[in-house]
Amino acid sequence: MRDITGAPQCPPEVAELRDRVAAFVRDRVLPHEPALDAGGPGAAVTLRRLQAQARTEGLWALPLPTELGGQGLPLRSYAHVAEAEGASDHGPAALGSAPLLDALMLWRHGSPGVRDRYAERLVAGEIRACYAMTEPDVPGTDPSLTATRAVAGEDGTWRVSGRKWFTSGAAEADLVTVLARTDGGPADRDGLSLLLVPSGSPGFRVVRELPVFGASGQGEIALDQVVVDADHLIGERGKALAVAGERLQLGRTLRSLRWLGQAARAFGLMRERAMTRTRSRGPLGDLQLVQRHVFESLLALRTTRPLVHEAVARLDAGLDAAVEVGLAKVAAARTLQQVADAAIQVHGAAGLGPDTALPALFRTGRAARILDGPDELHITSVARRVLRAT
Question: I want to staple 175 with a disulfide (CB 3.0 to 4.6 A). Which of 129, 167, 250, 281 is the partner?
Answer without folding.
Answer: 129
